What we know:
The protein is about 50% helix and about 20% strand. By secondary structure, the protein is an alpha+beta fold.
Amino acid sequence: MNDKFIKTQALYSLIDWEPFVLLGCLLAITWIFYKFFLQAASPERHTSIRSQFQALFRHFFILTILFVLFIVLHTTTGGDLANFARITPYIGLMTFVWGSIVFVKTCRLLVLQYLFLGSMRAGVPLLLVNIFSLLLSIVLTVWALSQVFGLDLGPLMATSAAFSIVLGLALQDTLGNLFAGISLQIDKSYEIGDWLEVVQGVQRATGQVKEISWRSTILVGFSDEEITLPNRTMANAQISNFSPDGHPIVRSQLFRIPYGCDLQKAKDILERAVVEISDIRGLPAPLAYIQETNENWVAIKVIYFIDNFGGQFTIGDKVMRKGIDALRANGIELARNVIELHSKSGPIHEQNS
């Protein structure tokens, strides 16, 4: 390999102890950042980050072997190793490429950990991290082609303008979804783990955000079904976020009490029973009030506040069972519909349902 295809002197100047040590320091900083700032992350996040560190350490170990081999071959001027001088540029090129990979992966992991600071429990979308990795890889590749191979990319970029236009038209929908996803993340309309209700026209979808990719946002519904919505749809839809911090979700259950019962006592029983459920907030406290009456019963509605939108049906079941048991323990049964049939001489039939 000679300077006709590759600038060996430029390549050799890039493969030195100083860049290698700086890359090792960057990896160490990334590890220290994880140990000191991400201890409160969820177990799933710890597992994910540690697996990425393991892969990164393996890449750095391979880089170290290549770097040491290059240094030995490059600094040897005589002896048996001098016969391997012809492969030195190839080893140098492999070392440079592998070092670039380690650099991109380390920066990617550092950015990922920084984003984790704002979302310890649920995680962060890979969209932003992937875009950062792609842009960094493109910049590094263009720079390497210019410095190491001596390619002038100016004319090439000029002649590819027509191709870029055709490619842009072909990828119009994909690019639209990509930029819509970026704008949604910049606006922080929602994050991974949030419960959303997405309404566009007559279409409605409710679920928890699982992932935000290049093209779409993936929700998981109440029945564990995956709902894939294009990012352009998300950007144009009406989104209700039920997971903002400090804003509990209000829900209610209705209890029908027969006439003749002590209504104030029934309300107190229901409020005390509901507040004992661990999934329900103590503040604001549950509130029971008379909502309506008819010829068969008095309806008491219990309002309570929860944080887990996805568990609202399970919590509602607990509220209903706990309320019924508390009322029965105090001698109060739920009301029933009563149907009476009358003749001219008086009632002839009575049915309870």
